[in-house]
């Protein structure tokens, strides 16, 4: 059950808010001032904080700063009187999730709370970005080094960036690095998950609305573009924006201007847009679900994040990082991992990518007796050598157990290489030797596939006359 902490010095408002939220299934705790509320938060925590902006002793801004410092994944919603809307906007720029103005409809607060709950759940499952720009990105493999080079070249430019990659590869981390390495780093960095916003509310979320624009719009409210003015706007899950909204987004990007919902005044902003998706936008374009002109406007600088199985050499470094992180968080003293256990982690396919690895390390540390993580501490699928992503629902057979003089680590590496070669050969056969299509089937980049083909001596075995580059009707590489 989602836990909501409500801070307000008006007793009647606390009572009404608590009753409303409990009816909707939330676990509600109330506090009559900021000091009491922060004591409750630091003692028992909360998933969402709703706080009045103006309170005696400790105000809403101090509550926001304290909550963000303790746990930046907890959304903070500001309640403010009409006369302090400017202060509420500043709170948004300082990291507040959203704000509502008194008087407000209960349905308005309910919608904001529901949105915050989705955002908190998404943040809880994801890899938390660090505001130390690209120094927070873990890895030294060639593929991640290529990403570093792009960040260094384009971070301090106004060009739009489209980050693509499988779920769990760290797209929000890259967006944070781009903002943190730019001259906009001291300006707002506004993030919005397009998948968490109902389609009929996307326009008002992005561009704001005027009072009376629709039922429940009891006051005017700026959108995310206005809040990000001078800074960066990160649109995660950009593929979820409905087609009818895409033309308005395109205009805002091209012209740097827009109108609020229900308004006639044109607003101009200076915003650097960063977008991300785990969808195949080329397929969405072909299906009529995404505008081609918007795609090309977004993909001025494309960044393709490799799956974790494409950068296995980074796994030891990631494991060390997550062991250190969860030793501190869980008050554990695990010193590291045995070679055999690490070899199993490197052989595993990681369909959930870095997010799956982080969650696994947290779970292992909870139950490990230490001082080292061993094979017996790992989940059954990893211990059994489930090493490859499936080409079909059934997937490839698991690696059989071996015994003998050869070490477990060497056996796992050999079996992983054999399976990789077998999967690549089958994919090339299935696609008639077309490297681009085979790469898509294997869910790796064409560059990675070409490297693997060279490693396994498969270049010469590809059918003659098949161009390894993308054909004219296939679109750009992923």
TrEMBL record:
Cell location: Cytoplasm
GO annotation terms (biological process): phosphorelay signal transduction system; regulation of DNA-templated transcription
Gene3D superfamilies (alphabetical): 1.10.8.60, 3.40.50.2300, Homeodomain-like, P-loop containing nucleotide triphosphate hydrolases
PROSITE patterns named in the record: RESPONSE_REGULATORY, SIGMA54_INTERACT_1, SIGMA54_INTERACT_2, SIGMA54_INTERACT_3, SIGMA54_INTERACT_4
Sigma-54 factor interaction domain ranges (all copies): 137-366
A cellular component annotation (GO) from this entry: cytoplasm
Region named Disordered: 384-405, 453-478
Response regulatory domain span: 3-117
Keyword set, alphabetical order: Activator, ATP-binding, Cytoplasm, DNA-binding, Nucleotide-binding, Phosphoprotein, Transcription, Transcription regulation, Two-component regulatory system
Modified residues (4-aspartylphosphate): 52
One family name in Pfam for this protein: HTH_8
A GO term for molecular function: sequence-specific DNA binding
Name of the protein described by the UniProt record: Sigma-54 dependent DNA-binding response regulator
Organism name: Stigmatella aurantiaca (strain DW4/3-1)
């Amino acid at each position: 059950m989602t836990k909501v902490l409500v801070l307000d010095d008006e007793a009647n408002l606390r009572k009404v808010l608590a009753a409303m939220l409990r009816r909707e299934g939330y676990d509600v705790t109330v506090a009559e001032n900021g000091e009491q509320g922060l004591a409750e938060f630091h003692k028992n925590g909360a998933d969402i904080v709703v706080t009045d902006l103006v309170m005696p002793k400790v105000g809403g801004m101090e509550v926001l700063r304290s909550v963000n410092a303790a746990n930046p994944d907890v959304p903070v919603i500001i309640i403010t009187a009409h006369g302090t809307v400017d202060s509420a906007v500043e709170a948004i720029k300082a990291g507040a999730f959203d704000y509502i103005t008194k008087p407000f409809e209960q349905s308005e607060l309910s919608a904001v709370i529901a949105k915050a709950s989705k955002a908190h759940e998404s943040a809880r499952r994801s890899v938390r970005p660090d505001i130390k720009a690209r120094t927070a990105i873990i890895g030294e493999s060639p593929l991640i080094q290529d990403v570093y080079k792009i960040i260094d070249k384009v971070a301090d430019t106004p060009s739009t960036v489209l980050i693509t990659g499988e779920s769990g590869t760290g797209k929000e981390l890259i967006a944070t690095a781009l903002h943190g390495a730019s001259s906009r780093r001291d300006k707002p960095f506004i993030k919005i998950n397009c998948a968490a916003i109902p389609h009929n509310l996307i326009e008002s979320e992005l561009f704001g609305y005027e009072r009376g624009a629709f039922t429940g719009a009891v006051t005017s409210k700026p959108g995310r573009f206005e809040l990000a003015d001078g800074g960066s706007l990160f649109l995660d899950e950009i593929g979820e924006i409905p087609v009818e909204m895409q033309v308005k987004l395109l205009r805002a990007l091209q012209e740097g201007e827009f109108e609020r919902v229900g308004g006639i005044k044109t607003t101009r902003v200076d915003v650097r847009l960063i977008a991300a998706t785990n969808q195949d936008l080329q397929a969405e374009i072909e299906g009529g679900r995404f505008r081609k002109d918007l795609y090309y406007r977004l993909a001025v600088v494309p960044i393709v994040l490799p799956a974790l199985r494409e950068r296995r050499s980074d796994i030891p470094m990631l494991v060390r990082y997550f062991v250190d992180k969860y030793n501190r968080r869980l008050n554990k003293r695990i010193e590291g991992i045995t070679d055999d256990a690490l070899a199993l982690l490197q052989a595993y396919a990681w369909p959930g990518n870095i997010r799956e690895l982080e969650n696994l390390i947290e779970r292992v540390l909870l139950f490990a007796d230490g001082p080292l993580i061993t094979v017996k501490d790992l989940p059954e699928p990893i211990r059994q050598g489930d090493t490859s992503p499936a080409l079909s629902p059934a997937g490839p057979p698991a690696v059989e157990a071996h015994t003998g003089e050869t070490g477990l680590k060497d056996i796992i590496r050999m079996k992983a290489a054999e399976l990789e070669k077998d999967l690549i050969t089958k994919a090339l056969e299935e696609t008639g030797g077309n490297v681009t299509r085979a790469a898509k089937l294997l869910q790796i980049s064409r560059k990675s596939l070409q490297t693997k083909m060279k490693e396994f001596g498969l270049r010469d075995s590809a059918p003659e006359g098949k161009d390894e580059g993308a054909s004219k009707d296939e679109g750009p590489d992923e």
